[in-house]
Specification:
The complex is a heterodimer.
Chain A lengths: L11 H13 L5 H5 L12 E7 L18 H9 E8 L5 H10 L3 H4 L13 H8 L5 E4 L15 E4 L6 H18 L7 E5 L6 H6 L32 H8 L17 H31 L6 E7 L18 H4 L3 E4 L8 E8 L3 H9 L13 H6 L7 E6 L4 E6 L2 E6 L6 E4 L17 H16 L15
Chain B lengths: L11 H6 L18 E10 L6 E15 L2 E11 L5 E11 L5 E12 L11 E8 L2 E6 L2 E3 L7 E2 L3 H6 L10 E7 L3 E17 L5 E10 L6 E5 L5 E6 L2 E6 L1 H24 L4
Parallel strand pairs in B: 9-10
Antiparallel strand pairs in B: 1-2, 1-15, 2-3, 3-4, 4-5, 5-6, 6-7, 7-8, 10-11, 11-12, 12-13, 13-14, 14-15
Classes of the chains: A alpha/beta, B mainly beta.
């Protein structure tokens, strides 16, 4: 794809102002000339608001049925849009996931040794800027490679943040977003990425609450503690690397920082309670941005996308935080809302991935996807209900050494150099508690998933040239 | 040097051990219901020993207007990566109460770049008032009415209320929180936990009274007040505020900002790293 797609020197606002004139002259709109996928004004959202949280469990929203928190802002997006129930992140760790989301390529391709998007791969902002007259805006957490910086190629950065303290630095980002929306003429379209740190601060909370407390710190919340998840217990037949990731975290008997947690049931539940408070915090910040969009009259004209870079263990499988291939860590919220164009209040069962976001946004903008994008545009699925022809999605994990391949019915997990694979029947065992990989009856299923994975991997272009190969037999 | 976690929630003793407490400003006949000003250093923590960073400061000032009214001014500064900065100032007339509730206010948020230039498009001024029990907000050219249940307060006006509460186990103080004069957070409650004696090293020995603050949309706060009812320390998860000398707090934040300017300049010279 070349820069032939770029529009003339007119900015988008000017273009829209001139749109009527061009229509009267019978001329196609400038953006349509420029686009690989010409769109009419009614097919293209005037504004795009891309909201990213950090470390949000897919069910950590009241609209997702969780009774242990209140998230009116996210609920509002869910109610007005379509949510994906089987939505996976490309990698359950911040940096590789974000590299994939913003490049449209898998983490093994997109993230280089410096935690940056690999050279030669345009990030979403660069790509949009190259192919349109949009001025993509960015707020807060970037992480590719710098956690927070004014210098993100392709984006105008409105404000930065600070690592590890979303409590303090998410509010300035929301204030900046609000102010920009109120100060900007309402006829000026926007493409804004608001990337919040929360609920990631639960990681810092963990380091301050590692040691099991014999008594609940606040007795008043005893009745509010969520119950342990149904899949708190787990099948111990898991790859060593997965076990290691579990044991290095705070609740286990020895963390990477040498501090045993040995949590009891109450402490696990107290952790969950606190995690939900962190989610409520980011929900409130999102709410003030939504209010600004609404008060400035943009709600009907704005495509809102809500997702997270990865999920949160939240006690499932006795895990906390991220990094693991299980659904709690690997699944993320993914919601698209555009009133009048995307069905409200729908829950879609299609398998989707974070690598679909960039191609989808490009499609909504009427520009081509980034080169060799591995994801798929969800636009037709969202606006026309056209089924997406996809058999599986892949999640990379364990520093690139692990893969989880999810088909409609199964999840297959493998780590290089480890013969202990995992296979879960996601219909009968959605909590991933019974590993079927060693059951002879499932040998054909395992073989099929291994073949799917190897075919997928052979089609990638890892940045370091080292292809992942599943050599288990 | 290997990192080690702190492992237990912050309290004043741990903050002292972490080197976060210097001698507090003199109490000099502090009257919570009178005229006073206080400065707090705002610190973010990673949960590792020695990895706390003062990134902001808060100045609050109370001026009595009448027996049942006071003026409450707030200045809140946070320095972000590469020396971007968010400054929020608020000036509110409040009604005395448990908690006190703002009646009319202005609230201004500004963002500054490394050169301290104010970004005009990121400037947001709010005017608000309470009328017949309803709150009305004007933001730029727009107005809205948040749904707040009485009593309600904001996170820093709450500091005023805390310092006037009796040290006594009593029914919980319940309220809605209107955080940053923007976000409605319901079902808040304050609970008095009683006194505890602390040896805070360089900061001296103190009998501190603790209130806990629980509610939706917040990680619980723990407030520690001295015998004069001065709020010395507020802790919420990995952030804490420490009562500080104004000049010292200002110098701390300026030093942090200078370091961030250095980072910004270095990154400009080395964009690929």
């Amino acid at each position: 794809m070349t820069d032939n797609h770029k529009t003339s020197g007119l900015n988008r606002r000017t273009f829209i102002k001139l749109g009527g004139g061009f229509a009267l002259l019978g001329l196609p709109a400038l953006r349509q000339i420029a686009s690989a996928n010409p769109l009419t004004d009614s097919e293209r959202p005037k504004n795009i608001l891309f909201l990213i949280t950090d470390q949000q469990h897919i069910d950590a929203m009241s609209a997702a049925g969780c009774r242990h928190l209140s998230t009116p802002a996210m609920d509002r997006i869910v109610r007005s849009g379509t949510s994906f129930r089987e939505s996976y992140c490309p990698h359950p760790v911040c940096v590789p996931s974000r590299a994939a989301i913003f490049s449209g390529r898998m983490p093994s391709e997109s993230r280089d040794d410096n935690n940056a998007i690999a050279e030669g791969m345009p990030n979403l902002g660069e790509w949009i800027r190259r192919h349109s007259d949009e001025n993509p805006l960015y707020l807060n957490r970037w992480h590719l490679p710098r956690g927070y910086t004014k210098m993100i190629s392709g984006f105008e950065v409105l404000t930065t943040g600070l690592g590890g303290i979303g409590y303090i630095t998410d509010p300035p980002a929301a204030r900046a977003a609000e102010a920009w929306l109120y100060q900007t003429p309402t006829d000026e379209p926007f493409f804004m990425v608001a990337s919040f740190m929360q609920p990631h601060d639960i990681c810092e909370w963990l380091r301050l609450n590692t040691y099991n407390q014999t008594e609940l710190r606040y007795s008043e919340i005893a009745d509010e503690l969520p119950p342990l998840p149904e899949n708190f217990e787990y099948d111990s037949r898991e790859p060593d690397r997965v076990r290691h990731m579990r044991l290095q975290n705070e609740p286990a008997e020895g963390t990477r920082y040498g501090a045993p947690g040995r949590w009891d049931e109450t402490h696990w539940r107290y952790y969950m309670w606190n995690y939900y408070r962190h989610v409520e915090m980011v929900d409130a910040e999102i709410g003030r941005i939504l209010r600004a969009v609404e008060l400035t009259g943009g709600l009907e004209d704005t495509l809102i996308v809500l997702t997270s870079d990865h999920g949160e263990g939240l006690g499932h499988h006795q895990t906390v935080r991220k990094g693991l291939p299980y659904d709690e860590s690997a699944k993320v919220p993914l919601v698209f809302s555009w009133p009048g164009h995307i069905a409200p209040g729908q829950v879609d069962p299609t398998l989707v991935s974070g690598i679909d976001i960039a191609p989808t946004l490009c499609d909504f903008l009427g520009i081509p996807p980034q080169p060799e994008a591995r994801g798929r545009s969800l636009r037709d699925l969202l606006t026309k209900g056209s089924p997406l022809d996809r058999e599986f999605v892949v999640v990379e994990f364990a520093g690139g050494q692990g893969r989880a391949l999810r088909t409609k019915d199964y999840k297959y997990i493998v780590v290089q150099g480890d013969d202990q694979r995992q296979l879960f029947d996601m219909r009968k065992d959605p909590g991933e508690t019974r590993n079927l990989a060693d059951d002879p009856d499932y040998a054909p299923v395992v073989a099929h998933h291994r073949d799917l994975l190897n075919r997928w991997e052979s089609g990638l272009k890892p940045y370091n040239g080292e292809h992942f190969v599943d050599r288990t037999s | 040097m290997s990192r080690t976690i702190i492992g237990t929630p912050f309290d004043p003793a741990i903050l002292a051990t972490e080197g976060e407490l210097a001698p507090f400003p003199e109490a000099a006949a502090f009257d919570p219901a009178g005229n006073w000003s206080q400065t707090y250093r705002l610190v973010g923590a990673r949960g590792f020993h020695g990895e706390n960073t003062a990134v902001g400061m808060i100045r609050i000032k109370r001026t009595s207007i009448a027996d049942d009214r006071f003026r409450f001014e707030t200045e809140y500064r946070v320095v972000l990566q590469e020396a971007m900065e968010n400054r929020v100032t608020a000036d509110a007339e409040c009604r005395v109460g448990h908690p006190a509730t703002p009646l009319a206010w202005t609230h201004l948020s500004e963002h500054r770049g490394p050169e301290q230039n104010v970004a005009s498009r990121l400037r947001l001024k709010q005017r608000g008032e309470t009328h017949n029990g309803r709150v009305k907000i004007r933001l730029d050219r727009h107005t809205y009415q948040p749904e707040l249940s009485n009593p309600w307060t904001t996170e820093f006006v709450l500091f005023e209320s805390l310092q006037r509460l009796p040290f006594a186990v009593a029914p919980h103080v319940r309220f809605d929180l209107f955080e940053d004069f923007s976000m409605v957070k319901r079902n808040q409650r304050l609970i008095y936990r009683g006194p505890r004696d602390f040896d805070l090293g360089e900061a001296g020995e103190h009998r501190l009274h603790r209130f806990d603050h629980l509610g939706s949309g917040i990680v619980p706060f723990e407030y520690y007040l001295d015998e004069a009812h001065r709020l010395l320390v507020a802790i919420s998860g990995n952030k804490f505020l420490v009562l500080d000398d104004d000049e010292r707090a200002h110098a701390t934040i300026e030093a942090f900002r200078e370091r961030q300017i250095g980072t910004y300049n270095w990154r400009q010279r080395n964009p690929a790293e």
